[in-house]
């Protein structure tokens, strides 16, 4: 009786921890206890799941303000095509112009442009992991706000053509295991905010993952491309009908996943594929000479040679 009183009303860190440990006991794991735990966490906040500090505010997301405000967007110059961070070592010409990384210069990506909110590290990576691996679904709203900022930044490039959002799909076996597609949740949260004033429709089942691709960790860029080949297909090719697509994923690592999705979509007649992700692995390319991407440069050279 007394213990119950202390657990419910005490704000002491140790007691809060003890109460959470009790709730999280493996024997209690069932949907009933999961629901009870989430209700308990909503009513009686415990510790920040990122830094462990006691939470002072009641929130559906068990992350403190400090951890949330520490997540910052990418600063500086990024590749105009793939969003890789560039460290420019020479003077920028007047007006700047569009800069591309060496990879995109050598082989222009299949997608029109990819942009990410922040670097896949620190608190942003933790937030994504909270959603994906610890099923803390309220994290999707915060990540969705970040994605909305990315879409807003992409909006001027869209030339007034509103793309349809296609979240990168999970394989059905992975979807069953996780219970939800994090990219779809983040996309839905972002679309609700009407970024750039756009009314964005989501076609979650346009693409499907035909085979599980496993973890790509530890694979080289080339191996990732090989691993992804043939992994996606269109479930309803007739639904493409010439509209642009905005692919949404939680993380852009080497771009192998979104590139493969973009290839399938382009082959089916999608004119342009845009890519928005919450995070991106940043290698940071040091650029000694300024490389410019001229608009439609490839098209012009094709015309000249054709
Ligand atoms: Zn924190
Ligand atoms: Zn690039």
Structural class designation: alpha/beta
The name of the CATH topology of the largest domain is Rossmann fold
Number of strands: 9
Major sheet details:
4 strands, parallel
Quickly count the helices: 12
Helical content (DSSP H or I, runs of 4+): 25-40%
Order of SSEs = HHHHEEHEHHEHHEHEEHEEH
- In percent terms, what proportion of residues is strand? 5-15%
**Radius of gyration based on Cα positions:** 22 Å
CATH architecture name of the largest domain: 3-Layer(aba) Sandwich
Instruction: Outline the low-pLDDT stretches.
Output: 1-25, 297-306
Shape category = globular
Write down the domain tally: 2
Mean pLDDT: 83
CATH class of the largest domain: Alpha Beta
Amino-to-carboxy terminus distance = 85 Å
Oligomer: single chain
The kinds of small molecule bound in this structure are:
zinc ion
Strand order within the widest beta sheet: 3-8-7-4
